[in-house]
């Protein structure tokens, strides 16, 4: 999650219940169990909510047909011009990306995060 979160940095988090999950917003940083191995915890930025269409064009994220403003991205860590076709986020799922896009293992690689695997969000970094 560089440059937003540094190695060893302490984070303040908030546990999520069903009601608070319904109020998650794009751009928040969430903590969840990795969908392919729930024994592992991941931390990523929430990009797409249920029903959103996410597309990546030459390394830039497009959300519902509009280019997403991402002031938290460092251009030096987003050099690979990767493209991904448009995908619609299913109900009770999220699309997540790391801020260090060149080195992040995220929804581009393994798909959507089911809502039931999300358990917290970062409230202060």
Describe this structure in words.
With 125 residues, this protein is mainly beta. 7% of the residues lie in helices and 38% in strands. The chain has 2 helices and 10 strands. It has helices spanning 18-22, 107-110; strands at residues 12-15, 29-33, 41-48, 53-57, 60-63, 66-67, 84-88, 93-97, 113-114, 118-124. The strands form 2 sheets. A 6-stranded antiparallel sheet has the order 1-10-2-3-8-9, with no helix packed on it. The protein has a 4-stranded antiparallel sheet with strand order 6-5-4-7, with no helix packed on it.
Question: Helix and strand layout, with pairings?
Answer:
Blueprint: E1 12-15, H1 18-22, E2 29-33, E3 41-48, E4 53-57, E5 60-63, E6 66-67, E7 84-88, E8 93-97, H2 107-110, E9 113-114, E10 118-124
Bulk shape: globular
Number of domains: 1
CATH level-four homologous superfamily name: Umud Fragment, subunit A
Low-pLDDT residue spans: none
- Helix fraction, binned, reads under 10%
CATH topology: Umud Fragment, subunit A
Tell me the quaternary state: single chain
CATH class: Mainly Beta
Q: How many beta-strand elements? A: 10
Overall radius of gyration: 14 Å
Q: What's the CATH architecture name?
A: Ribbon
| Strand composition percent | 35-45%
How far apart are the termini?
11 Å
Average residue pLDDT: 95
Major sheet characteristics: 6 strands, antiparallel
Topology order in helix (H) and strand (E) letters: EHEEEEEEEHEE
Number of helices: 2
């Amino acid at each position: 999650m560089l440059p937003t979160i540094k190695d060893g940095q302490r984070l303040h988090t908030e546990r999520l219940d069903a009601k608070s999950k319904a109020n998650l917003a794009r751009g928040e940083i969430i903590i969840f169990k990795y969908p392919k191995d729930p024994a592992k915890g991941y931390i990523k930025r929430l990009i797409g909510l249920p029903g959103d269409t996410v597309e990546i064009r030459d390394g830039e994220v497009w959300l519902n047909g509009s280019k997403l403003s991402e002031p938290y991205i460092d251009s030096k860590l987003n050099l690979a011009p990767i493209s991904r076709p448009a995908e619609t986020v299913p109900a009770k799922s999220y699309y997540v990306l790391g801020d260090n896009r060149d080195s992040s293992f995220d929804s581009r690689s393994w798909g959507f995060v089911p809502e039931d695997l999300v358990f917290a969000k970062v409230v202060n970094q």
